[in-house]
Amino acid sequence: MYMWWCSCSLLAALAVPPALLLLLLLLQGGGSSGSSVSARFRYWRDDCGYMWRSAKLGARLALYKRWRPFYSLLDRFSETARRHPARTFVRFEGRAYSYAEADRRSNRVARALRRHAGLEAGDAAALFLGNEPQFVWTWLGLAKLGCAAALLNFNIRSRSLLHCFSCCGAKVLIASPELKEAVEEVLPALLEKGIAVYLLSDACGTEGIVPLSEKIDQETDEPLPSDLRASVTIKSTALYIYTSGTTGLPKAAVVTQEKVWAASFIQAVCGVTCDDVVYINLPLYHSAGFLIGMCGAIERRMTLVLKRKFSASQFWEDCRKYDVTVMQYIGETMRYLCNTPRKENEKDHSIKLAIGNGARADVWTDFLNRFGDIKVRELYGATEGNIGFINYTSKIGAVGRVNALHRKFFPYLVIKFDIEKEEPVRNSEGLCIEAAKGETGLLVGAITKISPFAGYAGNQQQTDKKRLSDVLKKGDLYFNTGDLLRIDRENFVYFQDRVGDTFRQAWPTWKGENVATSEVGDILMTADCVSEANVYGVKVEGHEGRIGMAAVTLQEEKEFDCSDAYKQVVNYLPSYARPYFIRVQNCLELTGTFKMKKVRLVEEGFDPSLITDPMYFLDLQRKTYVPLTEDIYTSISAGTIKL
């Protein structure tokens, strides 16, 4: 997410003249004696277009940094509402909302929250909402008060929900009526801390939860004075977006106002214009849906089509109905679309651009063959990260493309990494070793004033854990992405794998969720029969990402209790985090430093013909774990049993 932002800022600062831009393009693709002239200039037009758009956007960002008072993305929205009041902002389930209407609704929200919750600039409020227009107005209302918004994953429950709310220091929780039961589970703890809990409904019979809709409707929709947010600067926290990690609980990545602007530019750098229409079916609590999708639409002053959740069967129908020209995806999105029954009119649509991440090369190719000449802009980045890439060419399979300017001023490295020990390889001086061109290694980005790492709210331990020191020299500091990448001789970047205690889940509700294995292990060990649990992700034939599996040991003189284990994982884990396969072992293999080994377990997978340990499968229809037989394994591999 950061590569284009870094390039933008730098080009603006240098006021890049054409001669310098030409020199930089000549350098692009160089550095390898084996590189031919044709290879170096093969992507000349793409490189020129990307760097030119980045230069213009960088000039804008540099200008916004100097403006007083600070000019935020909210100001961009308000400006559009004034200049183009009738322009359609959001389309949702057959209803169209203009920029002016969204502005008025958010004014009411802001006034209600100011009057009844006492929110003011610098405060934080948590949003526990699904994909719906009220999410958008509520966030805009908070922004008009100068408040930060914590975007809670609506799949989380109980302990995780309480943790996510607490770590951002929010004073208020705002939830949708559909999530009332989940709020009630943690309500006593929230009220004990003096948290105000609101429900976006006209009425609520639960003591301690205040219905907010009627209060919003009673407020005037007149604009709020801008001095309410006068203290907000480009370095102020705008959002908390949650990402899974090795703690076993989600971490609240701090997203500044500067990063909001940076992320909103992704659509522009990919060539999106104000005349485009973007289709958002990814959850708004994710950086992809919120920052790239919604904020990108505001920055481009365009129309967004909002969907509650992804539906492969309704996707193309929606796109035709609303004249969608830009779609968002993750790898599973493309695969699900390619798995739909073929139709004669499947190339009959207006989509020209797809922006996202996780597209597997074979699925990418199949997608283009089936649905036409759609320009795919594959991204690599992390919400909290300080390094990222964009594949602004049509090179299938690459997650990005590097350029000389970016690396010079925003240093990053691909370093050698020991997968078994799960740590960087160091030389005799204790410094890291850079991977050779074409060699897979760990991506790390230098932490500087220009490319900072803001860290995680309320979690200094995990913030420190993402910082890697003594990389090239003693005392330097880099952001550890936790991802293995490879850069080829043509400067294309390829994602290889994720390391550590998180794997990318591909199933089933919101595809592409990160799963913290230690959180799943903690829940499994609440089952009366389980002593220890080692959780990891395994690949399933024909699917992108990984699905959860756990190797467990049992309490002395106890057998695996299928019913109790099922009850624990279903009651306390979101659907995408539940381990579908359980492997019972006599003991868990540990490293010399007592860390659980996962590599061999991941490689062995869940094939009962190769594994002698007892294994069990999560049968959602029978609502229990069942013995994993070869028949079940064959049905899963053939796609007969849907995961």
From TrEMBL:
Keyword Cell inner membrane (UniProt): no
Span of domain AMP-binding enzyme C-terminal: 519-595
Keywords per UniProt: Cell membrane, Fatty acid metabolism, Ligase, Lipid metabolism, Lipid transport, Membrane, Nucleotide-binding, Signal, Transmembrane, Transmembrane helix, Transport
Subcellular localization(s) per the UniProt record: Cell membrane
Molecular function as annotated in GO: long-chain fatty acid transmembrane transporter activity; long-chain fatty acid-CoA ligase activity; nucleotide binding
Domain AMP-dependent synthetase/ligase positions: 77-401
UniProt superkingdom: Eukaryota
Leader sequence residues: 1-34
Catalysed transformations (reactions): a very long-chain fatty acid + ATP + CoA = a very long-chain fatty acyl-CoA + AMP + diphosphate; a long-chain fatty acid + ATP + CoA = a long-chain fatty acyl-CoA + AMP + diphosphate; tetracosanoate + ATP + CoA = tetracosanoyl-CoA + AMP + diphosphate
Listed SUPFAM superfamilies: Acetyl-CoA synthetase-like (SSF56801)
GO biological process: long-chain fatty acid import into cell
GO cellular component: endoplasmic reticulum membrane; plasma membrane
InterPro entries in the cross-refs: AMP-bd_C (IPR025110), AMP-bd_C_sf (IPR045851), AMP-binding_CS (IPR020845), AMP-dep_synth/lig_dom (IPR000873), ANL_N_sf (IPR042099)
Topological type in the membrane: Multi-pass membrane protein
EC number: 6.2.1.3
NCBIfam families, per database record: PRK08279.1 (NF006134)
Name this protein carries in UniProt: long-chain-fatty-acid--CoA ligase
Provenance organism: Merluccius polli (Benguela hake)
